[in-house]
Design goal:
- The protein has 206 residues and is α/β, with parallel strands linked by helices.
- It contains eight helices and eight strands; from the N terminus they run H-H-H-E-H-E-H-E-E-H-E-E-H-E-H-E.
- Strands 1, 2, 3, 4, 5, 6, 7 and 8 form an eight-stranded mixed sheet that branches.
- Helix 1 packs parallel to helix 5.
- The two termini are 29 Å apart.
- GO terms for molecular function: methyltransferase activity.
Amino acid sequence: MTTHHGDGADTSGVDWDERAAAFDEEPDHGLRDPRVRAAWAARLKDWLPGRPCDVLDLGCGTGSLSLLAAEQGHRVTGVDRSPAMVELARQKLAGRHAVFLTGDAARPPVDGERYDAVLVRHVLWTLPEPDRVLRRWRDLLRPGGRLVLVEGVWGTVSPVGIPADRLTALLAPLTARVRVERLSGDPALWGREVDDERYAVVALRD
């Protein structure tokens, strides 16, 4: 997995297996604070379909968002490049309707399966050829399915990330409707005040 911790650093060389044990210590990773957890649960309930459905969580990390989705009645498949992260996610969701696979978020190892929602947080900005990746993710959706992408631009000296207007432009030829939700102004999501660009995009497939 390649994801972002919000410090403006390039994470491409990070050993995520080594980081896995401490990953959940970040407020918006582990969702251990009840207020942070409740904030993400409320957003997820709004972004995902209202009925129980099949959700693919790409770059799932330790499974914190997967767990929220499962608690809302969804069947979850999580994919992460880090075997250590995948093992922690399996432990976190033991006994729930969830499967976790080790693999590349850009090319998920799901053997032709289709999903009602593809959920991806802080992963797309790290991937080369995001237009191709988005097309691949869109093709994993059933008709009427949705992409739920949580992204942003982090850091002030040398910002990294993907601005919302760039992401919506990449999605325009691929999906019927795109909704952008700004997240920077909700400190409950991050466990603190933030002043950089953070947002979610919900894009519906025809």
